[in-house]
Specification:
Blueprint lengths: L2 H5 L4 H15 L8 H36 L6 H22 L9 E8 L3 H21 L3 E9 L5 E9 L3 H5 L4 E8 L8 E13 L13 E6 L15 E6 L4 E5 L5 H31 L11 E6 L5 E4 L5 E2 L2 H5 L4 H11 L3
Parallel strand pairs: 4-9
Antiparallel strand pairs: 1-3, 1-5, 2-3, 4-5, 6-7, 7-8, 9-10, 10-11
Helix pairs in contact: 2-3, 3-4
Length: 349
């Protein structure tokens, strides 16, 4: 593989133009008049510069290896073969990341988990999923924050909302949207019978900049309450947590992790706008799919993955048929293979 092949995957000239445009914007006298927008621009600028450096760096390494190979020194063949395998692995991963070209793929993400039918077992399953995604994020160097959490009646959680901060967090996590099914011997059943539990995972891009969505205050029901879970220890005495219900759509968002009611309200409104933007995107995708004659599945009915712990061990994604018997690794956050299988299946779809 020559470095020229890489540029057919990653468009350096186009990215250079984006960098130039952002640099010009950052030098404007009133650039920091809108701090959130300015921070977003600087983050995007840093990400694009890093991408160009990575691609040019790997291209240089490939050219160096090819030059050494052209010398015909047989004593270096084993070393060159190992280097070729290393470079091929890096290029494959970078090539895949280059395919994350959706409008919000490079953004942070907000992930929500809701326990489904199944009582305590499903609430425990929701907490297992929360741990799984937190582990996955940690392994990728992403920063996480639990924005809200509702504890289960006896164990586990009824729901949780997590902020995941890092490059391409949404691009990867969007593969996780849908219903996750668990089959196991229930630790909450005295007869030790097999139970099936369900949990719904929702994901949307966490767009911190200005979102052009108008929300009528009359369409909002705003409730305050005392935070009572992760992140809320310092606000137990006052009703600083905020829950916002968007009446026309029924969307409910809450935030309890900030120190004041005002901060929680601002963050909840930010999440609500991002969810409304994502809802509009989903509607457009559904309309396009209908025009193309494709079947459009309901979100809750879309069982995307099964995790079987009894009578055998297997995790299987029903969209791609990718499966593994290493259930422990998956529940410890090893999700990349599932994400990549799904995202590759969507390229060109």
């Amino acid at each position: 593989m020559s470095s020229a092949v890489l540029w057919s995957v990653f468009d350096v000239p186009k990215t250079a133009q984006q960098i130039e445009a952002l640099e010009q914007e950052s030098t404007a006298p009133d650039f920091w008049a809108e701090p959130e927008r300015a921070q977003q621009v600087m983050r995007q600028l840093a990400r694009l510069r890093e991408e160009v450096q990575r691609w040019t760096g790997i291209a240089q390494q490939i050219d160096d290896a090819l030059e050494l190979a052209s010398l015909g020194d047989e004593e270096m063949y084993a070393e060159l073969a190992a280097e070729a395998d290393r470079l091929a692995g890096i290029v494959a991963q970078m090539e895949f990341q280059a395919l994350l070209s959706g409008p919000y793929d490079a953004e942070d993400a907000v992930l929500a988990i809701h326990a489904g039918a199944g009582g305590t077992d499903s609430q425990d399953w929701a907490q297992m999923l929360q741990r799984m995604y937190l582990r996955w994020a940690e392994q990728h160097g992403y920063r996480t924050e639990i924005l809200s959490e509702t504890e289960g009646d006896e164990a586990g959680i009824k729901s949780t909302t997590i902020s995941v901060v890092g490059d391409y967090a949404y691009g990867y996590l969007k593969a996780e949207r849908g219903v996750h099914r668990l089959v196991r011997l229930s630790p909450f059943d005295a007869a030790n019978r097999r139970h099936t539990s369900f949990a719904l995972v929702e994901v949307w891009p966490d767009i911190r900049g200005e979102i052009d969505i108008q929300i009528d205050e009359k369409d909002l029901q705003i409730d305050t309450f005392r935070a009572s879970s992760a992140g809320g220890q310092h606000v137990q005495k006052n009703e600083t947590a905020v829950r916002i219900t968007h009446l026309p759509t029924g969307i409910v968002v809450s935030c309890q992790n900030e120190r004041s009611q005002t901060q929680n309200r601002e963050r909840a409104m930010q999440v609500l706008k991002a969810r409304l933007l994502d809802l509009e995107r989903q509607k457009q995708e559904a309309q396009l799919a209908a025009l193309k004659g494709e079947h459009v599945e309901a979100e809750w009915g879309n069982q995307i993955r099964s995790y079987v712990l009894h009578p055998y061990q297997m995790v299987k994604d029903h969209r791609t048929d990718y499966e593994t018997g290493n259930t422990t690794a998956v529940l410890d956050g090893r999700l990349d293979e599932f994400m990549e299988a799904y995202l590759r299946s969507r390229v060109g779809a």
